[in-house]
Each structure stands twice: as C-alpha cells, then as structure tokens.
Amino acid sequence: MSEQATAADRRTVPGGSEFDRDIAVTRREPGVYAIDLHAGWTIANAVNGGYLLAVLGRALADTLPHPDPFTVSAHYLTVSRPGPAVVRTQTVRTGRTLSTGQASLYQRDDHGEEVERIRVLASYGDLDALPDDVRTTATPPALPPMDQCFAPQDGRSPVDIGSALTDRLLLKLDPTTLGWALGAPSGKGEMRSWFGLADGRDVGPLALLLAVDCLPPTAFELGLSGWVPTVEMTVHVRHRPAPGPLRVSVTTRNLAGGFLEEDAEVWDSADRLVAQSRQLARVRLG
Amino acid sequence: MSEQATAADRRTVPGGSEFDRDIAVTRREPGVYAIDLHAGWTIANAVNGGYLLAVLGRALADTLPHPDPFTVSAHYLTVSRPGPAVVRTQTVRTGRTLSTGQASLYQRDDHGEEVERIRVLASYGDLDALPDDVRTTATPPALPPMDQCFAPQDGRSPVDIGSALTDRLLLKLDPTTLGWALGAPSGKGEMRSWFGLADGRDVGPLALLLAVDCLPPTAFELGLSGWVPTVEMTVHVRHRPAPGPLRVSVTTRNLAGGFLEEDAEVWDSADRLVAQSRQLARVRLG
C-alpha cells in the first residue's frame, strides 16, 4: 500500500474522509480483515456493490505488494447487509509490475453461520509508475453544466430518489437521463451524472470502484422498475483522477433473456478515461 | 452438464469435433481434472487464452449443477504451453438459476514445480431456460460477404498470418481491418471477422469463450507490433448461437499508459448478440 498516497489523500479532508473511514479494514492476522459495513453506503438496506468492491480493494491493497487495483472481477453471491463482516485475502501471484490476488467477504446469517457475500479476483499495479502516453480514441460524455443537473435529493422530481448512499456522494444527474423519475422513461438505456464524494475528498483509485456502481439503473430509462441485482462486475482502473468532479456515463445495449449488461465510463476533469466497468445484471421483466 | 446438448453437438461432426476432443478433461477425483493442452490451439507456442477459457469452462460445467457459462472472469498469470495440465475447480455457491464456481489451471515448470497459469471465477446457468425476450439495441457489425473477406492462410497479404490456431478455425477477416498486414495500419483500433470452427462443428457456449479471443490484436491496426498479452478477460455468454457462421467485432478505445482494453462482440446468423467480452491487455510501446 502506498502510504505516501494515502496520507496525501487524507489531507484533502480535515479530520479524515468518511470514505476512507468506512472502507478501513482491521487486519486480524495475515490475510484476514474485519470491518463493519457502514449503513451509509446502502440503498434500501442493501450494501452498494461498488462500496463492497472498495472494501475488498482496500484489503487487497494491504495484502499485495502493489498499491493500486488495475482490474477487479467480482462475482456477487448473496446480498450484503450493514454490520460486521470478515474479508479473507490470498496472494495468487506476485510479479515485478503486476500482482494478482483473491478476496472474499463473509457475514454471519441469522443462525450464526458464515455466508460468502462476494468473491473477487484482482490484479494490482502502480498507477503512478505507468508511462504517460495517451492514445485514447473514446471521447468524454456530453453532460450539461453541473448547475443544470439534478442531485437525487433535489426534490425537483415527483419521486425522491435519494438514499443513504446518495447522501455520501455529490451526484448531479443529467436531466436527459431522468425521464423515468417523471414517469416518462426515454427508452434509451443511458444514465449520466457528475460524480464526487460529498465531503469533498478527491476520488482516488479505490473510490473509482465505487463510482462505477452509484448511478440509478439504466433499466429505469428502459421503462423497467425494481431491483436490478449485479451478478458480476469487472472494473478497469486506468489512471489516478485529476482533482475535481468526475463524469460518469453508463449504457446498456443488450437487454435480453432476463439479463442486461451495463458499461460505465468515468472521466476526470482532464478528460482522461480513468475507469471502465462492465457488469452483468438480472432484470425482472414487466 | 447437459448430456443431451453435448450429444446433439457431437452429432454435428461425424466422428466428433476436434474442439470437443481438445477441451475434454478427465476427472481424476471430484474437483480435479487432467488434460493435455493441444498444440493445435497455439500462436507461436503460446496456448490461446480463449481455448484455455474453454478448457476451464468444460471442467466447471462438470463441477457445477448448471450447464452453461453466463459470465466468466479470468486473470492470466503465466503463459501456458502445450502439454499436460491440471485443472482444479471449486463450487462457490449454488442457487436455483445460477451457480458460481472457481477454477485454476496448473502446469509443471522445468523443475517439476506446479505453476498456476490462470484463475477464473464463473457464474453458470441454463441458457435454454432463459425467456426469449430480446430488447437489444446494439446492432450487428457491417462485414463484407464472406467471399470478399480473407482467411489468414489466404496468402493474399505479404505476411502469412496463419498459425496453428487459425488452422482450427474458419476465419474470414474483414479487409478493412487488415491494413496492418499490408504495412498500412488504419489507425482505428478495430478488427472484424466471420468465425466458425474449421471442422464445421456448430459454435456452442464453450466455443464462444474461444471465439472472443481468436482475432489478430486491434493494436496491429494502431501501428503497434509484437505480443499483446491478456492480463484479465471477462466473457458474457448470452444465448446459444443459431447454426451458421458468426460475426466477431473487436474494438479498443482506451490505449494509454502501456495498457489497452479490447471489447469483442459475437453475433449469430439470427442477428443475436450472443456473447460480449472485455479484456485488459499490456502493450509494448513503439
């Protein structure tokens, strides 16, 4: 774990950031970490998948010799609830520039039995050691200026779409992707938003694992309602974001057979494509 | 494993298909399988990553109660060579419609030590049990008719780009993505091809894991040469392909910092988007 980067991140928020506090894990023994999953990162009492990834990512950053997640692949098994959890990590391979690890998060069920919630494979490297060439051909999403976008708690829609999770975030949603909140879904599987952390902490590599899973489901703009649970999600972290608000753009193009994929892109203020993710999720039809 | 589907697949090729033969694993004990990785599925003596996924997928289909891979996430650790290998699988969770498993492939190095080559997490279901709704908004790639496309062994380019792997396949590459083979890369990170198996076997769900990783690297069309090793790849299998040749379209949009992502789509003759994949790969610059 790069202690230098961590200290610099913490200086951004006097007293420390709630994100860092809420993903902090306590090492019980090598490869075994304890945490209380914080209720602040939930929607309808289900712990957000991106927050879970950040928790696992935090544990793996302690386990592996390289500090930053480069690619994280997660299979979600059962729903996580706020409260005590154990993370077990394993080093799979260490190399000069990349290491690979595995991590699982467990909670006890009502009978006191340990149940696995999520299992991930992740390859780590050092983002600050990458060469600085950029030949990206993708282009940033077009979002209206922030003051023309809506926070979930704004109350300008008939539906209050805020949640405990969105209270932790600076979300400013693109109104052209909010038709669903006004009973008029666009029919296009798109969702776009400005993104930051509510307490102003800069978004670092672990917070990018959160950022890709924080927007309302694109399924809502396709006229579907209800929960769209993630089966699997893979996140590529490609660059440490420049300071300032990020732009998140999510699209789905293959809704079929009761499943859909969702692709998310995260762009920073320097117009770098800093993270990409794809998840497979289940939809309830009709 | 759906024995009925397997028998139907085998009937497609009198005497059996080389794909089925070359991914067949022998169960030594529960969760432990042996295989000889076949030299036919290599490029420059490196075993193709998609073929490896199909081998692991075959073992997991035997281990798990559901027959078909829905989403497979693989982290590639060390290069696999033709020859003996062991696959160890583990059931992570079984559910009514989905199960999740983990699998690793090992080979012995020159000192006789077991080295892990690849580790995967995969969630399996039953493709034939999915509802038949299709609300896909993605559209198939535009490819010239097959007789206007080139097989790697065609010899029409100054470079013979055939390999042991391509001899196993029916590849007909889109000439608009073959500029690199004529010394004139297009500058667009795209690769497109018709795809089938050389012996005519229909492409089933396991062969889709192969199909997404069989084309020349998109990096070649960006003017880069040399090996573009896969760090991680996730494949979504969404539908059993209709009979007949498939279309594979690969794109990269984020080449930066010594890495690129490659997205592959596989479309069948009924214009269904039957598989999607994304990999993170390393590039050697210059």
Characteristics:
disordered N terminus; 5 helices; 12-stranded antiparallel beta sheet; 14% helix; mainly beta; globular; 286 residues; homodimer
Structure description:
The structure is a homodimer of 286-residue chains. Chain A is mainly beta and 286 residues long. Helix content of chain A is 14%, strand content 36%. Chain A has helices at residues 3-11, 18-23, 49-63, 164-167, 205-211, and strands at 26-29, 32-37, 42-43, 46-47, 68-76, 83-94, 99-108, 114-125, 169-173, 190-197, 230-237, 246-251, 259-267, 273-282. In chain A, the strands form two sheets. A twelve-stranded antiparallel sheet of chain A has the order 1-2-6-7-8-5-11-14-13-12-10-9. A two-stranded antiparallel sheet of chain A has the order 3-4. In chain A, helix 3 (49-63) packs antiparallel against helix 5 (205-211). Chain A is globular. Chain A starts with a helix and ends with a strand. Mean pLDDT of chain A is 92; it is low at 1-12. Chains A and B meet through strand 5, strand 8, strand 11 and strand 14 of A and strand 5, strand 8, strand 11 and strand 14 of B.
The radius of gyration computed from the alpha-carbon positions of chain A, rounded to a whole number of angstroms, is 18 Å
| Helix segment tally of chain A | 5
The portion of residues assigned to helices of chain A is 10-25%
The CA-CA distance between the termini of chain A, in Å, is 46 Å
Q: Name the average pLDDT of chain A.
A: 92
Largest sheet of chain A: 12 strands, antiparallel
Q: How many beta strands in the DSSP annotation of chain A?
A: 14
**Poorly predicted segments of chain A:** 1-12
Large-scale geometry of chain A: globular
Biggest interface: chains and residue counts? Answer: A-B, 52 and 52 residues
Note the beta-strand portion of chain A: 35-45%
